[in-house]
Design brief:
Strand content: 15-25%
Number of helices: 11
Number of strands: 11
Structural class: alpha/beta
Radius of gyration: 23 Å
Helix content: 40-55%
Distance between the termini: 55 Å
Order of helices and strands: HHHEEHEHHEEEHEHEHEHEEH
Length: 287
Amino acid sequence: MLDWDDLRYFTALADDGSLSAAARRLKVDHATVARRIAALEEKTGVRLVDRRARRYQLTPEGVRVAEHARRMEVEALAVERSLHPRPGERPVEVSVSAPPVIAVGLIAPRLAAFRKDHPNIRLRLLGHIQTVSLTRREADVAVRLSRPADTTLVVRKAATIRYRLYAAASYLAGRAPADYEFIGFDDSVGEIAQQTWLMEIAGKRPLALRSNDLAIQAAAAAAGLGIAALPEFAAARLGLEEMDASTGAYARDAWLTYHHDLRDSPAIAAAVPFLADCLKQRPAAGL
C-alpha cells in the first residue's frame, strides 16, 4: 500500500511545479517535499519526475499518477469536511481568511463578542492578500472581494466595501492637484480593481510609493506621503481626508463563501452571520 502522505506531497508538486511552491502550500521545508517524493518513487519503482536545475518536470508516469492522486485528494478532503466537529465540550476551530485590512478593521475588533456568545467555537483569523483554496481546506470560510465561480462553494453577498481617495489633511492643505502624488500596489499582487481606478484618476501624476500591502499604503498616506485608495472604514480609523469628493467612490462587493460540505456545520452556521454583521458595520470607536 502506498502512503497517502507521499501522494499528497507529490500532488502539491504536480500542481505547483516547484519544490518551494509545494513546500509553501504544505507549510514544510522543500527538503521534506523532496524526501517524500523520493520515497514514493522508491516504493513504486517508477521515476515520477525529471529533476532539473530550477524545476521538477513530471514524467509520463508521473502525469498519470498525479491524475489519480488528485482524485484521491478531493475525496480525502471531502471526508475531512464531512467530519467537521460540532461544538460541544471540546472547542471547535473555524479558520477564516480575509483581506488583511478587513480582518484588522472590521473582524478582529469584534472577536471578543463572538467568543462570549460562542465559547466553544474558536475563530482562527488569517489575513490573506491572495485567494486561498477552500477545497483544500486552506480555510473554512473566506471573505472575498470578487464573486467565486466555483460551483462547489456556498456564496453569500455580505456587504459593499467603498474605496475613496484619501490623504492626510496636512498633505492636501495648500497643495495644487497637479502636484498630487499617489500610493498604490506593486505588480506582485496582480490586477487589483481599485488600483486600476486610482491609476485612471492619477493619470500622468507619479506614484510616490508602491507596496503589496494596503496597511502599509494607509500608514504612508497618514504620514503625508501621498494619496491612496482606501476603504472608508480604514480612512476613518486614521482620520484621513478625502482628496476630492467629485471623484466619487469605487465599490466592491464583499462575499462570504465556504464549501458545500460544511453547510450543515453548526460552527459554520454561527460564524457566517457573525462575519456578515462585521462587514456591514463601521469599525469600533477608537480603532
